[in-house]
Design a protein that fits this description.
single chain; alpha/beta; seven-stranded mixed β-sheet; 40% helix
């Protein structure tokens, strides 16, 4: 009885009824404990559609050097970041965008780490990870699991376009499209409530 009273009333809502925010960071590296954010893009998803008019993008002052190895991935050079707001200032915009929304990311541990760098607290139980959803849908559809879970590879596997790979705004848009495809597929298996998507995200 005690557990029933603690249940979130949104748990049984279908994904099309949820307010979601897809977030993607470009960073100095892939270690969420050590590396720093360089840019962030976000796209709201409401009513089962990406709301491009409310999407956002900001570069971020890294407060330190930008490793050459990371420049080769995202193409952001120090000159691109001159005059950018710091992580905490960008965090204020992210908190506003996230207000009332469930966070969506691909490989969410990195995004959660960067959000912490931006002084934005998100509970892991309030996250939908498209990497986990992709694995779950493969399993439910009876397909062998993919060994390549990079965003571009998973998007291509589902016949989706990749928008500006390794650009935070482009990757956020690609992730939004992937979310729509995966949630629609999971819906066919009766697994597209808020609770189901958060649970299946842990397949990552």
């Amino acid at each position: 009885m005690r557990r029933w009273w603690r249940r979130d009333p949104d748990d049984d809502r279908g994904w099309r009824d949820l307010d979601l925010l897809v977030v993607d960071f470009e960073t100095t590296g892939l270690d969420p404990r050590r590396d720093r954010p360089l840019s962030v893009g976000w796209v709201p998803v409401r009513g089962g559609q990406a709301v491009l008019g409310a999407a956002g993008y900001q570069v971020i002052d890294p407060a330190g050097p930008v490793p050459t190895a990371s420049i080769a991935v995202h193409g952001l050079v120090p000159e691109d970041l001159v005059g950018a707001d710091g992580a905490r200032a960008v965090g204020a915009a992210l908190r506003e965008a996230l207000d009332g929304h469930l966070l969506v990311a691909h490989g969410a541990s990195l995004e959660l780490g960067m959000l912490r760098r931006c002084d934005v607290a998100v509970d892991r139980s309030d996250v939908i990870d498209t990497m986990g959803l992709a694995r779950a849908l493969d399993r439910l559809d009876g397909r062998p699991p993919s060994t390549d879970l990079r965003l571009s590879a998973v998007a291509a596997r589902h016949g989706l376009p990749v928008s500006r790979a390794h650009h935070a705004a482009g990757d956020a848009l690609t992730t939004a499209g992937l979310l729509l495809a995966l949630a629609t597929g999971l819906e066919m298996h009766g697994a597209a409530t808020r609770r189901a998507l958060v649970r299946l995200s842990r397949s990552s």
